[in-house]
Please model this.
Amino acid sequence: MIDFQSVLTAINEAASNEKERGEIADYIPELAKVDVNNFGIHLIDSQQNDYAAGDSNELFSIQSISKVLTLSMALSLIGENVWERVDVEPSGDPFNHLSLLELENGIPRNPLINPGAIVITDILVSKLENPKEDFLTYVRDIAGDNTIDYDETVALSEKKTGFRNFAAANLLKSYGNLNNEVDVVLDFYFHQCSLAMNCAQLTHIFYVFMNHGKCRRNKSYLTLSQVKRINAIMLTCGFYDEAGEFAFEVGLPGKSGVGGGIVALLPNKFCVATWSPGLNAKGNSKLGMLALEKLTTDTELSIF
Ligand code: GLN
Model:
């Protein structure tokens, strides 16, 4: 039996001694206010035992991690039709890049880069009565936690500076791959990105992807095939142009966000989330990557 608590405690100690902590994302002004010295880690195993260390109960902006949750909701609403509007190949490009979108006639490479996530958001806007409320209810329901909420200040902050996302949405519209108004879709997109969660809450949600589509209360949200697809996309596309490096160093499907969060999982075994707001040059949490590399090395647990 692996002593996850000792492993997490050691990871937290190593992180607190780390001097090079990366750079905080400041293109969304509100995110720049966070203290770079935060570090938290939380792990839930398949028996629903929780282990934690550091600032694992501090709320942070989950940003792009939300893209997995909107994809999950879209898949459960329209199934395989999702793939008519977005592809499933890694982009090898930064999350906000637009050149491939133009080359490939408005079909985004995958649902975990910004243009792909914006298409998924558009699907939800078409399908849901009250997109923001309904998506929040979906997330709260999976988590079994009604305290989860959007951070309106972060959403507004991104709306004011989200020029590249406006460009992406307009480009999608010009190719006929955005059915709703740009402003409406992006308002929802900025809100989904602004969801505030702590490491514990993230693992409690992503538990569904390690547990055959069933949440901690055993309620089913996804088919086995849908879970396979989501985990495959996280593995190949979850870290932008660093997905190869993450598979190489850590060896788990996962997803990062520019708020400094990373969530990753080993099917049937555990789900783990880290938070450290300093990012590396590719926009992924610097200490989060190191922590997860240490976790899978020390425990000898990875999908490989
Ligand atoms: N809201 C951010 C954006 O669209 C999300 C990016 C990220 O977390 N990588 O730019």
User: Anything to note?
Assistant: The chain has a mean pLDDT of 96. Residues 208 and 215 are 5 Å apart (CA to CA). The first helix runs from residue 4 to 16. Residues 4-61+196-299 form a domain with the Beta-lactamase fold (CATH 3.40.710.10).
